[in-house]
Amino acid sequence: MVPYFNTSGPCVAGQHYMLPPERRLTRVLELVEQGRFFALYGSRQTGKTTSARWLVRSFNAPGGRYDAAWVDLQTAREQPDLGEAMREVLLRSPTSAVLEYLRQLTAAAPRPLVVLFDEADGLVGRTMVSFLTQLRAGYTDRSDLPFPHSVALIGMRQVRDYVLASEDRRTVSWLGTTSPFNITAEAQTLVPFSAAEVVELLGQHTAATGQPFEAAAAARVHALSAGQPWLVNALADQAVRDERDVGVSVTTAYVEAAKETIILERGVQRYVIEVKLRRGTETEQEAEQLVGYLEGLGLDRGWLVLFDLRKGLSWEERIVERELELAGKRVCVLGC
Asked: CATH number of the domain at 195-265, please?
């Protein structure tokens, strides 16, 4: 079977053209080695699940130092009812399901245990609060009771942006401290492909089929995609589909045509983005206004961009990325 450029789901070695996942996981491997609890975050289709699955296979290999488990929380996504969410994932008592499960799993593992929770930021409300609280309880007691050596929370957001409602944030006021998540030192993301890596990926197609990408075409793929893995694969996939004769080189003209095709196939989408100057604490008020716009357009999600003009704040305090849920709508707040 000839591999192909993957544009849907995790990459599979031998089936898809792909770069070695471990290249992008140097710091992650260091954090696991140190026994840290950390977040691995990034936008959609950047290779998070592919990386997680590689980590599990690598750790579980014979002669390895760790046992590893990958837990997909997708089934509990957007489920605010604690009991239902925990039953979806573990079929256990809601308030202690994660804690008990991880302790039993750790006790049964012959080697230090590493657990990767995928789609962790999809949990909401009391479910998210309970999940994080149970992880913290296990972390603080792990010198006396069995608990994983390292835990990774994988998703699109950092831990500090997980909990949406203000009352939930008060419940987990410890969020962002070193117990268990130091969000400044231990929130890792996956870097984009470099220009050289794009050339390497495209070269796999040439090696498999004989069809070359011209140097200018490869450079254009990197420029258009900024190294974003899905876009790199989508541009390359469309370009080789447009020219199926492997005796013909892929030129920049094919890449440009692929770009236009992708734009058209993605369809027309409407986005609501409201930009405001922030002088006080009016985030909730501005978000409510945005919800009104969403309701009028029949959309479920919008973005509120706040340029913070308040004096005396550091850049860390000004830069914010979190989501609110108001009247059944989701508002992504971006502060700068």
From this structure: 1.10.8
